Amino acid sequence: QHAKRKTIGLRIPDNKITLALLEELDEPLMSSTLILPDEDMPLTDPEEIFEQLGKQLDLVIDGGFGGNEPTTVIEYIDDMPEVVRVGLGDSSPFESR
Fold first, then answer.
1. Burial class (CB within 10 angstroms; exposed 0-12, middle 13-18, buried 19+) of 94
2. Which of 45, 46, 52, 63 has the fewest Cβ atoms surrounding its Cβ within 10 A?
3. Overall pTM > 0.70
4. What does CATH list as the number for 16-91?
């Protein structure tokens, strides 16, 4: 939930491992960007995640380096889509014509 708004964000993944988990579980997953205290950038390397946090986690799935490129964000308010940020993911269906 956004601090100033009563909204949530939904991610539509384009990742084979995530899609397989969603298919198998048949329910949503909750996730978060992993930015450790006193760090500016998220951890996206599974080996580094395991090295730093492995004893605190039940599982680390090594699907390779996750990358740091921002994703496209589309806001829906009153059924009107607005492209807030263009990044990974095709935003063209939601752009004003």
1. middle
2. 63
3. no
4. 3.90.870.10
Cβ 75 vs Cβ 82: under 8 Å? yes
| Per-residue b or e along 63-89, where b marks 16 or more CB atoms closer than 10 Å to that residue's CB | eeeeeeeeebebeeeeeeeeeeebeee
If one counts every other C-beta atom within 10 angstroms of the C-beta of residue 49, the result is: 19
- 24-76 pLDDT per residue, tens: 999 998 887 889 999 998 899 999 999 999 899 999 999 888 888 888 888 88
Q: Do residues 46 and 38 make contact, with C-beta atoms less than 8 angstroms apart? A: no
Cα 37 to chain centroid distance, Å, stands at 19
